[in-house]
Design a protein that fits this description.
alpha+beta; 2 domains; 5-stranded antiparallel sheet; 30% helix; 3 helices; 215 residues
Length: 215
């Protein structure tokens, strides 16, 4: 079984799921969200002074909305931060029956860090896949047999002859009706048998003379 397609899908899901969930939640809140005034627990500006401050409010719903008393921390605008400091109230939106899906009404916009990180993660996966396919191609050789396959003893060897001919000695890795694959010096050599025979079994050393097939 080839593991890499499943692993690739799993990694892509991990990379894209947070942003996808965020976008889906915002879409649901746009369509079905309800507004309410939440009770402010605490406020914090990071850093405490400066022009690059970010403002955070920790809050909880009224018992009528969420009697569990869960606390949430959200980034808000400077105006909402000052209002929360003054009134101990923050206006928030939430999905009915799913209070964990929520957001402040007055929230900062324009940050694309999550999008940039997600795109960078996807590009990294694509680059790794391209490198993997290149490496697999670079370590594969196809040979058209010019003789029957015969038994031999180690070590592995790949001897280059004239006119693209080669003599391959290696361990039999795969056997099919019209071809075999030999493992030779870190390369997988596919031998197209054509009219020739292969009497050698799996995981035994074999030798064959053939001509490289150019792609």
């Amino acid at each position: 079984m080839r593991w890499w397609p499943i692993a690739t899908i799993f990694v892509l899901l991990l990379i894209n799921l947070p942003l996808g969930h965020y976008a889906w939640t915002n879409q649901r809140l746009d369509a079905d969200g309800l507004r309410t005034n939440a009770e402010v627990v605490s406020v914090k500006a990071v850093p405490e002074n400066g022009d690059d401050q970010k403002f955070y409010v920790t809050w909880r719903f009224a018992d009528a909305v969420d009697d569990g008393g869960q606390e949430f921390t959200s980034q808000v605008t400077a105006e909402a931060y000052r209002s929360a400091q003054r009134t101990d109230v923050l206006e928030v939106e939430y999905l009915p029956g799913k209070v964990g899906s929520n957001r402040p009404v007055a929230r900062p916009t324009g940050s694309r860090i999550a999008v940039v990180i997600t795109i960078a993660g996807n590009l990294t996966v694509v680059a790794m896949l391209a490198l993997m396919f290149w490496a697999r191609r670079a370590t594969r050789i196809e040979v058209l047999a010019l003789t029957d396959v015969v038994r031999c003893k180690p070590p592995e060897s790949l001897t280059e002859l004239a006119d693209d001919e080669v003599i391959v000695r290696g361990e039999v890795e795969t056997i099919a009706d019209d071809r075999i694959v030999l493992r030779c010096q870190g390369k997988r050599v596919t031998v197209i048998l054509g009219q020739y025979e292969n009497p050698i079994g799996y995981q035994q050393f074999a030798e064959v003379r053939g001509r490289r097939m150019r792609s």
